[in-house]
Amino acid sequence: MSKTYQVTAKRWAHGWELHIDGVGVTQSHGLHDAERMVRDYIELDLGAHAFDVVIKPEVDRKVDAEIRAARKATLEAAEAVEAAARRSREVARELKEAGLSGRDIAVVLGVSAQRVSQLLAPATREVVEALGSPPKVPVATRPRVSKEGLPSALRPRVGSR
Prior knowledge:
- The chain is α+β, with helices and mostly antiparallel strands.
- Among the domains are: 3-58; 79-131.
- The protein is built from five helices and four strands.
- A hairpin with a 3-residue loop joins β2 and β3 (24-28).
- α3 (102-109) packs across α4.
């Protein structure tokens, strides 16, 4: 298990101060490059190479509270959508088991026939959990694809015979 470094990012006149718990402080111009700066600092200072970084930006108390409230509301909405989808799948299966056709289920649920097909199909999360997550392919080993959608090995070479 790799170590996780907690970083508090505090706004200042020239960008962000990055306070790395138990390590030190570095800076970045923007939050977009904060993780890279923290990683560089930790690698140079500690010689560590395999670790995780969690950056928590702090703006000011009022805005920070609003940010937390917005994130909480977004998470709750996502959970509600997932619960509604799970419930719809369960009801669609029950209706199918009761002998209703896909079109009848669509009318009962007030959705399209295509949506009923999706609801009756195995849930994506269930399939992924059953099969395990697909292996990650490093970017360097992925074939390069041209604008025409052909891997570089299959593209015609211009100017050569």
